[in-house]
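Pilot study result, target chain (201 residues):
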Amino acid sequence: MIAFLFDLDGVIVDSNPMHRRAWEVFNRRYGVETTDAMHERMYGKRNDEIVRDFFGDALSDEEVAMRGAAKETLYREMVGAEIDRMLVPGVRDFLGRHRELPMAVGSNAEPENIALFLDGAGLRPYFRAVVDGHQVERPKPHPDVYLRAAEILNIPPAACIVFEDSHSGVAAGLAAGMQVIGLCTTHVNLPGAVLTILGPE
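Predicted structure:
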C-alpha cells in the first residue's frame, strides 16, 4: 500500500498570487515595499519565519504571532468566494480517482487557511490526516510534517509519495525518506523530485 501526501499552497490550491498580494498590502501598513526577492523567500515557509525575515529579529514572539495572524486574516478576506477558482486544475478529479488510497495534507500553512480550502472546496473527506507546521517541532524543510502524516496513516515513509511545489517542501519530503513529485506552480526547477509535472492530471 502506498500513500499520497500533499502540500496545500501550490499543490492543492494555486494560492501564491493571492499570498503575494496579501503580503504587499499588509507590509505597506508598516511602510515596507515587498520585493520580488522577498516573495521568493516566503515560499514553503511558516508564517513566523516570514514575518521575522520581512521585519527583522527584534520583534517579540508575541508581535511576530500578531503580525502573522493579521496578515492571514487579510489573506482570507481577499480569498472570499474565490476558493473553487483557486484550486489547482485537475486536483479534484485526481483526488477522486485515488480516493481509495490513504491520503494526507502536510503543510506549513496556517491551520485556518487549510480549513478554509479543505472545507470550503469540500475536499476534506479525501484526507485521512491533516498535519500543519504548528503540530510539529520543526516546519519544512525539516521532515517532521510528512513523518507525522505517515505515522497517522500507519504507512512507512518509504511507501509515501509527496506532491510538492517548493524547494523547502521537496527537501522535507526527501529528508523524510519519501519520493517527491514536483508541481511547477511555483518553481520550474525542483531538484530531487523524481518527476516534475505542470499539475495533477
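One observation from the pilot: The first strand starts at residue 3 and ends at 6. A full batch analysis is planned for the follow-on phase.
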